[in-house]
Amino acid sequence: MKRLGIERVIIVGLDGLDPAILEAMLAAGELPNFATLRDQGGYGRVATTLPAQTPVAWSSFATGTNPGAHGIFDFVSRDPQTYRLELALNRYEQAGVFQPPRVVNLQRGTPFWRLLSDQGIPSSVIRCPCTYPPDPIEGRMLSGMGVPDLRGGFGTGTYYSTAEGITAGEAERVVRLPGAGPGAIETVILGPNHPRTRAEIRVPIVLDSVPDAGKVILRSTGEPQSLVLEVGRWSDWLRVSFRLGLLQSTSGLVRFFLVSMGPDRLSLYCSPIQFDPEAPPFPISSPEAFAGDLKRAIGRYHTTGLAEDHAALSNGRISESAFLDQCNDLWREREAMFEHELSRFQSGVLYCLFGIPDRIQHLFWRYRDPGHPANRGRPFVADHKNAIAEAYRRSDAQVGRALRAADDQTLVIALSDHGFGPFRRGVNLNTWLYEQGLLAVSTGDRAGDPNGAPLGHIDWSRTKAYSIGLGGIFLNLRGREGLGVVDPEDAEPLKAALAASLSGLVDPAHGAVAIRSVIAREQVYSGPFVDEAPDLLIRFGTGYRTSWGSAMGQLGEAVFEENTRLWAGDHIVDPVLVPGILLMNRPFRPEGASLLDLAPTVLDTFGLPAGPKMEGRTLLR
Asked: How far is CA 46 from its chain centroid?
C-alpha cells in the first residue's frame, strides 16, 4: 500500500551543495524553488559518510548501508599483494584470451531501484555514481561516475602546441606541433591502446589555419570530416573511429578548444575521448539502447563519469572562462536529459544527478576565500566571483523543473551528498609516517621517481604503514600485504598508537588542528567488505586535506604544504563539518537524518519495507 497517496518520487541529486551557502541564499530570497519545496514539506541537514566523498556517499544513499556493506571506500584502492594502485569503482575481467572482457561494478550493495524492480516498480536513474556497468532494472538507467574515457582513465585530455619544452601535467598527454607557418599541420588524435598489441591507436588529422578569421579547420576521416575551431570557443563534437583489427573498430567523441593561434604559434586542447553513446565498447545504459535513444532525442553528450575538464584548467591549458563555458554545456545536457525523462514519467522513481556544482566549488572556492594560497600570483576575475552562487541558482532551477512536473501524488526530494569548505593546506601523511620511522624508502631521494609507479620508491621490508587515497592509512600487514612486516598480533597496538599520535595533529605554521581524530575502520564500518577498507580513517579539520602526493602514495618535503592549486575547495574532512542538504515536499523527520535513510524512505513511499541489509529508517512522518 502506497504511503500518503504517493504514486511517484522525483529525486534531484545536487552534488556538493553546502548547507551554509544554501541557507544564506534562502534567507536572501535567491532560491525561490528551494523555498517552495521547504515550505511544502521541510528542510534539514543530512549526515554524510566517512569519507565524505561522492562515490562513497551516493553508494550509501542508493543502498541504505555503510561503506563496509557496499564496498566503496574511495576512488582508488590497492592490490595488497602487489601494492599496485587500482580504480576502486569497477574493474575489467576476462575469462580467457578468446573471451571478451566484461566490466564488474565494485559497488556490491543492493540499491533501492533493484528492490523496486523486483516488485515491478520502474525507475529512471540518470548518472548516479557507481552505476557502471548499469543495473538491469525495470525502467531506464544511464551510468554516471565510474564510466571511463576510451583510454580507460577518469579523463585524459591532449594538449597540442607549437611551443617547445612543454611537459604533460595531471591526466593529460602533450603533442608537439611543427611550426604554425603557412600550410597545413599534420598530427594525430591519441586513441586507446590496441587490445592485442597494446600499441597506441592514432588517427591522423590535419589542421588548416585561417589566421585572419581566428579559425582552424580540422580535417579528418571522422564525422564531420571538416570541423571549424574558433579561438576561445569549444567546438562541436567530432566522432572518430579507431581501428582495432581488420574488421573491428570502436568509435569515440571528442571536442576541441582552440586556445590561441598566430603567424608562428598554435595551441589546442582536445577533450578526453568519450564513449560514443550509440556504440559504446561496454554498455553504459539499461536497456543498452537507451544511451543511443537519448542521443537521438537530445543530441550528442558527454559520457565520462567526470565530464568536467578540471585537469585542463588546473594544468593551465584552458581558462576559467573556458571551464565555465563547458559547465554551461553540461548543465544544458543534463537539463535536457532530466526534461526528457520527466516528459514520460508516469510512475515509480526518477532520479537525476547534477554534478556540476561540486566541480565548480572545487575550482572556484578561491573567490570565496581571498586569503587562499591559490590566489597568489593569479588574477581575481570579477566575472567569476559569483560562479558558485550561480551554480546554486541553477540547482534551484532543477528543483523548479521537478516541482512543475509534480502533482499531489508526487514526492519531490532534493538533496546533496555532502557540503563544502576550503582546502588551504595539504597533509603529507606518508611524510609524517616517514618521520616517525614507520615508512622507509629504497632510494636516496625520499620523493622517489615522479614518473615512476605509485608507491614504487617504498622499501616494504622496513615499512609498517602507508597511505593512499584521500584519507586512509593501511598497515603493511604480514599475510595480507605481499611484503608485509607487521605481525597480526601487533596490528591493534600499532593502530592505537597511530590514532593517538595523529589525532589532534597541529599545523605549527598556523596553530590550527589539521587532524581532528583518527578512527579504526571497525569502529565505523560493518558488513562483508570491511577488510577492504583502510585500517585507519582520517578526519581532517577545516581547511585541511590529504596532500596531492599522499593520495598517490608519495612523500612530500614536509608534513604540511600549501595548496596553491586551483582546486581550492574540498570536502574530504571530518564528515560532521560537511553535511549535505535535504528537502522534501512532504513533512519528514529532519533530526538525525542520514544518507542511509533515503533508500528506506523511497521504499516506504511504495509501502515496501527497507531492504534486509539496510541500516537507515524512513524519514516520512
From this structure: 20
Q: What is the pTM of this model?
A: 0.96
167/253 Cα distance (integer angstroms): 25
Q: What is the dihedral of CA 29, 31, 34, 35, to 10 degrees?
A: 10
Same domain, 474 and 526: yes
Domain hosting residue 168, numbered range = 157-275
CA nearest 603: which of 47, 115, 138? 115
Instruction: Quote the CA–CA distance of 557 and 541 in Å, as a whole number.
Output: 21
The position carrying cell 534567507 is 27
**26-52 tens-digit pLDDT:** 999 999 999 999 999 999 999 999 999
Flag whether 38 is in a domain: yes
Distance between CA atoms of 503 and 169, rounded to whole angstroms?
34
**CA–CA distance, 236 with 414 (Å, rounded to integer):** 32
Distance between CA 192 and CA 150 in Å, rounded? 6
| Total count of domains within the chain | 3
- Measure the N-to-C terminal CA separation of the chain; round to a whole number of Å: 16
Question: pLDDT at position 3, please?
Answer: 66
Residue 405 cell numbers, joined:
512536473
Taking alpha carbons only, the member of 481, 579, 494, 571 closest to residue 536 is 494
CA-to-CA separations, 472 to 428, 475, 521, in angstroms, rounded: 12, 10, 9
User: Residue-wise over 485-510: b if at least 16 C-beta within 10 A, else e?
Assistant: ebeeeebeebbeebbeebeebebeee
CA distance 195 to 198: 6
Of the given ranges (72-81, 216-225, 384-393, 444-453), which has the lowest mean pLDDT? Answer: 444-453
Q: What is the mean pLDDT of residues 90-104?
A: 82
CATH number at residue 481: 3.30.1360
**Span 430-482, pLDDT tens digits:** 999 999 999 999 876 665 555 556 787 899 999 999 999 998 999 999 999 99
Q: What is the pLDDT of residues 484-510, one digit of tens each?
A: 999 999 999 999 999 999 999 999 999
Give a three-class secondary structure readout of 560-601: EEECCCCCCEECCCCHHHCCEEEEECCCECCCCCEHHHHHHH
Strand 157-161 to 536-540 pairing: unpaired
Residue 298 maps to a domain: no
3-state secondary structure 403-438: HHHCCCCEEEEEECCCCCEEEEEEECHHHHHHHCCC
Helix, strand, coil % in the chain, rounded to nearest 5: 25, 30, 45
